[in-house]
Structures are given as C-alpha cells and as structure tokens.
Amino acid sequence: MGFNCGIVGLPNVGKSTLFNALTANATAEAANYPFCTIEPNVGRVPVPDPRLARIAELSKSKAVVPTQIEFTDIAGLVRGASQGEGLGNQFLGHIRAVEAVAHVLRCFEDDNVTHVEGDVDPLRDAETVETELMLADLESLERRADQAEKRTKSGDKEAARSLALMRLAQEALHEGRPARTAKVDPADRREFRALQLLTAKPVLYVANVSEEDAAAGNRHTEAVAARAAAEGAEYVVISAAIEAELSLLSDPAERTEYLTSMGLEEPGLHRFIRTGYGLLDLITYFTSGPKESRAWTVARGTKAPGAAGAIHTDFERGFIAAETIAYDDFVACGGEQGAKAAGKMHLEGRDYTVQDGDVILFRFNV
C-alpha cells in the first residue's frame, strides 16, 4: 500500500488512546476486511467510503474490500528531541519514514491527567513539536548543503539543483517557518520531497477534546482551527475518550445510539481517516464484478498504467487499455451493463488520468 500517516504529539495528549481506538474500530467494523497490525505501533485501517457499498450492491458482489491507509503511533516527543532527549532520535526517524503527520493536540482539561508543561495550551504544544522538527531539519540541511556545495563547485548540475532547493528550505527555517512553506516551483516538488525534511510533510491537527465538547468543540479547538487555516493545514475535532468507548461496542445499533446520545452523526475517526487520506492527496478508484468489489488507492494525477500497477505490476507492464465508468454514471445506469448500453463506458489509453470514483476494468497482456 505504501501510504502512511504518523500520529505524533507530546506525552499525555491522547495520542495512543486515539491510535488504539482507531485500530480497534477497524477490527470491529471490518472483521472481514484485510485489516492488519504490522508492528505493535503500526496498523492499516479501511477508509470509509459509502460508494464502495453501492457499487457492490449493483454488481451483486460476494466480497467487498475497501482501500486502506496506514497509521503509525510514534513515541511521544519532549523538548530537546532534536538533540536526542527522550526518544528523540527514534521519534525523528519514525517521522522521517511517514508521508504525512497527524499532530494530536490536547484540547481538554482534566486534573487527573498530568500535562508535561503544567497546563493546557495546544498552540504552545504545537510550537514545541514544530520547533524540534525545524531544529532537526536545520541540522540535517547544514550538513547536506555543505556536501552539495562542494559537488556543485566541481560542476555537478544535479547537486546544484538540490542545493538550490536546500537553500529555499533553509531560508524558511531560519525565518521560523516550516519547510513546507517554502516557495518551491511545481516542477521541483518531487525532488524537494526527496530531501525528506520533517517539516516539509503535510500536517493534520487533531484536536482531542472531552466528551462534552466532541460535537461543538471549545475555545482550544477554535485556536487550533485558526492555526490550521493560517498554515493551509487540515484539522479535525475528536474525543479519543468517545472513540475508545465506541470501539467496545460491536452492535451497529448500539454504536448508532451511543453516537446520537453524544450529538454526533458518525465516529470522529471516520473524519480523521478521510481527512488523513485527503491530506496525502490520494484518490480512490474501484474494480467491481460478481466475485468482488474493491477500492484502490493511487495518488491524484496517476495515469491509467500506474493505477493498474496498484493491482499488480503485471497489469502495468502489459497495459493495453482501461474501460472506465464514472461513479455517478455507474449508479445512474444501474451498474456496468447499463452504463455500457448508455454509452457511458469509455475506453482509455496510457495518457488517461484516473479520476476519483472511476470504476475500471483493465485490459492487459503479459
């Protein structure tokens, strides 16, 4: 799968409670799905998507398999992590390995849960984590920029290009801004991401609130929302306590009743998963038939052969064409046969960019 979102935060903000609820809910809600725990702190969970159930219904599929996103529960950070304090090196190494960061911020008051800073202030907590990541990036860039500069002087054009991108990141960091705010030309974004800077990763702020604030939020979540808007980041409000309780309920009716009593229409984790999925700029396409309807994950902008490769490398290598039906047309026409009869099925070649919601049958020859 390869799409990974790391869950980070200071100690005692509800990070592990959230992760445990996330993976427990995945198991409870999708016992027949390919959920798995890769390591004690890594889990893959299904992405909620009502379109898949509708497609399966129209195709009379025997099996339904959702797409997934991987979450990693990363050890709590403390001040000085960039200098190796606490589990600093391990913490930073795990963040470097993920593609996006879900930053859990404590937005609830509870005298029974000690805050490492003494009081609740999510913006200060966000700054603490961001500062440590920026310091680590600066140290990494200074070392790598020196090496790139030496190669540039010897005529290495690739090193010169990398050095220019490093300088853009350093400029932002020296101004107290994360590397993701650097003004990078779209043509250079792939190489910029290859620098693997901690603060270049997209961020989702997760405001963890008490049960009574789950529906409407509070003054702390308002502050988090303002910060996210200013940064162009995403945010969601979740009560880890509610999600933990919800994970213990296996009966769908009981889950619905509990959510209704809390003034909620759906589990907060559903919003969390969907927002994390969107944060990675991913889309979903579907394959469907009597045997199985399945959702597949690809990056936005993926061409048809690359999307075929998500199923199997042989599909990409032997790609001939893709029979595509837009989701709305698939539903409106009552399924594949109706869509074909109505002229809504299109035969696409190698240059076709897969769209979110496409129902696709790949033609290939190996």
Instruction: Provide the low-confidence segments as ranges.
Output: 27-40, 84-88
The first-to-last residue Cα distance is 23 Å
Overall strand count: 13
**C-alpha-based Rg, rounded:** 23 Å
- The chain-level structural class is alpha/beta
Give average pLDDT, whole number: 86
Element order: H for helix, E for strand? EHEEHEEHEHHHEHEHHHEEHHEHHEE
Task: Based on Cα principal axes, name the global outline.
Answer: flat
Helix content: 40-55%
Task: Give the strand line-up of the largest sheet.
Answer: 2-3-5-1-6-7-8
Strand content: 15-25%
Total of helices: 14
Q: Strand count, sense and closure of the main sheet?
A: 7 strands, mixed
Report what the structure shows:
The chain has 366 residues and is α/β, with parallel strands linked by helices. Helix content is 43%, strand content 20%. The strands form three sheets. It has a seven-stranded mixed sheet with strand order 2-3-5-1-6-7-8, sandwiched between helices. A hairpin with a 2-residue loop joins strand 2 and strand 3. The protein is flat and about 65 Å long.
Keywords summarizing the entry:
single chain, 366 residues, alpha/beta, 43% helix, 13 strands, flat, 7-stranded mixed sheet, 3-stranded mixed sheet
Topology record:
Blueprint: E1 4-8, H1 15-29, E2 36-39, E3 42-46, H2 50-59, E4 63-65, E5 68-73, H3 88-97, E6 100-106, H4 122-153, H5 157-174, H6 189-194, E7 203-208, H7 219-231, E8 234-238, H8 240-246, H9 252-261, H10 268-279, E9 282-288, E10 292-299, H11 304-311, H12 313-317, E11 319-325, H13 327-332, H14 336-341, E12 346-348, E13 359-364
Parallel strand pairs: 1-5, 1-6, 4-10, 6-7, 7-8
Antiparallel strand pairs: 2-3, 3-5, 9-10, 11-12, 11-13
Helix pairs in contact: 1-8, 4-5
